[in-house]
Amino acid sequence: MSKLVLILAAQILLLTTFASTGDGSTMNPERLHQKEKLTHLRVYWHDIRSGQNPSSIMIQPPVKKYSSTYFGSITMMDNKLTSDVPINSTVVGQAQGFYAGAAQPELGFLMAMTFAFKTGKYNGSTITILGRNIVLSEVREMPVVGGSGVFRLARGYVELRTKLFDQKTGNAIVEYNCFVLHY
Length: 183
Fold this sequence. Notes:
mainly beta
């Protein structure tokens, strides 16, 4: 069952990355001749696993032998992205996707998610992030593998820094510094 979920999630991610243009229009070839821009975005990712309305839900528990590193677990998420650390800060978008325990000896996840922006000049645009996240490292880096809308043909990277982690609830707030090249 977990293999099927991972395969399905990977197919959805690939279809979203390669087929979506964000606004339903086709690519303008003239856009490729424009100079690439570098956009820096700082957002805060709120992974809420507790309470009546969690934003992340584990759909596959870890393998018992590796429960301390969550190896084999799969968690689906629809997390708020905010402009500042407090959860009641301005919501600028959603982080939608999953993370799966992918490291046996350490706490490491394979993360596949799309940042869907809902406000300002990036409203309706997305960036897609796919990579390895070793959670206990102070600074982590994952690649931006695509995007839509303003971020069509995006590439780049994100730097992650955990701002808050509650061991009792599993809730976390992570700062994402996104460096995105796009046309």
